[in-house]
Amino acid sequence: MKKKSRKIVSKKPAKRPVKKIAKATKASGKKPVKRTAQAATGRKKFLIQVREQLLDTKTHLLNGIDSELRAEREGNKDEGMDTYDLASEERDREINFILSDRERVKLQQIDDALERIEESTYGVCESCGLEIAEERLSAMPFTRLCRDCQQELERESRSQRSYDDERNTYRKLGSTDADDEGG
Question: pTM of the entire structure?
């Protein structure tokens, strides 16, 4: 009798998505980077530095948000303001809301990057599967795409934007003509 072997499925993903990288490199024509033991050690040190940098940035952002909230609560105690003061106060509140919304997005990006570090998928392009250069990760620690894929995404975005602008221009021209005829 043959014994059937059971595969044990781990909840944690593999340390490096090797198959994904191999498939992506075949499709893109790019060669995957072979790592030496020394390069792997350097990459680990780099990831530790990036993790510390992300945690510091997160702490700094949270402290800034907390101090802004405290200042806003203390600022709301002033009564007896005239119309101009109230309008200025409202404008400041709107600007702070926009800034805090950006900060929330940045915090989410930091959390996502920290999660990718824990899952050992940090520094791998989500589009092509190749490693993202350390220089790019140093400049933009929460990036998900390598330089080439980011440029392609931006090109597509610009192309889509110009297409949408053209469509809107033609719509405006068409609606103007229709409005003149009906009036």
Answer: 0.57
The CATH code for residues 18-145 is 1.20.120.910
Q: Which of 127, 122, 162 is nearest to 147 (CA)?
A: 127
Which residue in 37, 6, 16, 40 sits closest to 121, CA to CA? 16
Q: Which residues have CB under 8 Å from 111's CB, separation 6+?
A: 58
Contact 136, 113 (CB under 8 A): no
- Asked if 113 and 54 touch (Cβ cutoff 8 Å), the reply is yes
pLDDT digits (tens, 9 = 90+) for 42-72: 888 898 999 999 999 999 988 887 887 777 7
Whether residue 123 contacts residue 47, with contact meaning beta carbons closer than 8 Å, is answered with yes
Residue 131 β-bridge partners? 124
The dihedral sign for the CA sequence 136, 133, 120, 152: positive
Rounded Cα gap, residues 116 and 125, in angstroms: 11
